[in-house]
Amino acid sequence: MSTPPLLLASTSPQRRAILEQLRIPFDVVAPGYDEVDPPGADAIGLVRAHAREKARSVAGEARGRPVLAVDTTVVLGGRLYGKAADAAEAAGMLSALGGRTHVVVSGLCLLTGEWEVVEHDATRVTFRELEEREVAAYVAAGEWQGRAGAYAIQGLGASLVKSVEGDYLNVVGLPAALLVRVLAERLPGQYGFG
Questions:
Q1: pLDDT higher than threshold 80 for residue 2
Q2: Domains in the chain, please, with CATH?
Q3: Which listed site, 19, 24, 59, 152, has its alpha carbon 20 to 30 Å from 176?
């Protein structure tokens, strides 16, 4: 019997690329869930809840396939940095992150008709000191759009980073080590793990 492809509840090209890299078969469907980040929200609780609701929003389309959803945010000093609304907000985020260590937190939900697993992972990222002109040049490149924390570590954003502690792919967009562990535990052998 062939392995059913996961149903990825995401339109993120980075998440698709990571699943392809891991050779996990998948189909994509856009989640029918609008994320709202209330002020003062707990980062871990928030990304876990968003991942769960994204997965549940497409569960009716699963037809026996496991559903995977992920949500990511950036945390610095207790403040959440999601996706910047415009270039000025992106520049502000990057300036705040410059020379400091932030945490990229992702919630992951994997569900089937029989069970649901919701977990999270965190990766520490330290930016080097950033000059105002560097921030302006990065923002002008447009890579900040649609990215938590207003940067893409797998692209030009790599030039902003001094060090990474933890799962690099979590910063790209999908906590791969966590996903592999959950697949190995819950669906041993089906996707090549466990």
A1: no
A2: 6-186 (3.90.950.10)
A3: 59
Catalytically annotated residues: 71
If you average pLDDT over residues 15-20, what whole number do you get?
A: 97
* pLDDT confidence bin for 71, thresholds 50/70/90: very high
Amino acid, res. 14: Q
Distance CA 116, CA 186 (A): 10
Mean pLDDT confidence for 47-71: 97
The pLDDT, as a whole number, for residue 94 is 98
Q: Determine the pLDDT at residue 105.
A: 98
Please give the mean pLDDT across all residues of the chain.
96
